[in-house]
Amino acid sequence: xxxxxxxxxxxxxxxxxxxxxxxxxxxxxxxxxxxxxxxxxxxxxxxxxxxxxxxxxxxxxxxxxxxxxxxxxxxxxxxxxxxxxxxxxxxxxxxxxxxxxxxxxxxxxxxxxxxxxxxxxxxxxxxxxxxxxxxxxxxxxxxxxxxxxxxxxxxxxxxxxx
Length: 162
What we know:
The chain has helices at 19-31, 72-75, 78-89, 102-115, 121-137, 146-153, 155-161; strands at residues 39-41, 48-50, 55-58. By secondary structure, the protein is mainly α. Strands 1-3-2 form a 3-stranded mixed β-sheet, covered by helices on one side. Strand 2 (48-50) and strand 3 (55-58) form a beta hairpin. The radius of gyration is 15 Å and the shape is globular.
């Protein structure tokens, strides 16, 4: 059994992003209507928002590794990860949640799913499932709201509930 690390089983942050990969990531950044100047490629220890510098470091771990895991965090697309950092962490900088705490990470994934433009239904679903997994790992039970049900189960879910 492979032990889960805090950063998941994504591609290694030690993999250097190629020019082609960076170009693809810049397309993802434009798709989510984020400020490209905030993103720094091949810098930092791993993909993460750094509040004190107001930058998002983007490393090789921005890409999923779908070979070894079915965990939502591992399966999230690079676009979903960028949205998590930008709409989830950067947009809530200066708040009282401790950086890296379960509720900070829960909020980042939830708010990215809710607010980021340019994400597919599957990307939003992976973000919601990631948020729920972070709460679960902290021993916190989250009551699903209608947004979460609609994103994870599809728009037909609410019609079946009525």
